[in-house]
Amino acid sequence: MRVTTTVNGTERTADDVWPGESLLFLLRERLGLPGAKNACEQGECGSCTVYLDGEPVCACLVAAGQAIGREVTTVEGLADGTALHPVQEAFVDAGAVQCGFCTPGLVVAAHDLLARVPEPSDPEIREALAGNLCRCTGYEKVLDAVRLAARRQAAQ
Question: Could you write out the DSSP letters of every residue in 23-60?
Fold first, then answer.
């Protein structure tokens, strides 16, 4: 099957896609976008979180064919050229990147939260990030990063 989808603002096509292939495999292996991580392949850890038509999804649970004609935004697509998105900058500045494996999913989840709730409370942050597991168990730095991004966003 041929899959043509818009990824990070650019139309991309992949041929010979197996009908059961995941969006995550398409992004990582066929389109060369390694930002979304392959961890649990069951939608439990959130490491593969991307936007599909503006809604955050676990790319491991979405069939590649479901992305045909739709818009996908990965963590790579949040940046503006070489300039990091403010949420990405906040993760770096707060030291929330740790080993980096869960970071892309956490960044997308935090980006989504701040787009919906510009000044979230701590319980709102925890709820928004509840689907993203960090094996380093360093959630405090992640929470600091989201708070920092929210403060910076509010100051603009």
Answer: HHHIIIIIS----S--S-SSSSS-TTEEEETTEEEEGG
- pTM comes to 0.94
Distance between CA atoms of 78 and 75, rounded to whole angstroms? 5
> Do the strands 10-14 and 3-7 form a parallel or antiparallel pair, or are they unpaired?
antiparallel
* CA-based torsion, 129, 134, 139, 143: positive or negative: negative
3-state helix, strand, coil in the chain (%, to 5): 40, 15, 40
pLDDT in tens, 50-77: 999 999 999 999 999 999 999 999 999 9
CA 33/CA 75 separation, integer angstroms: 9
Query: How confident is the model at residue 156, as a pLDDT?
Result: 83
Strand (E) or helix (H) holding 111 = helix 103-116
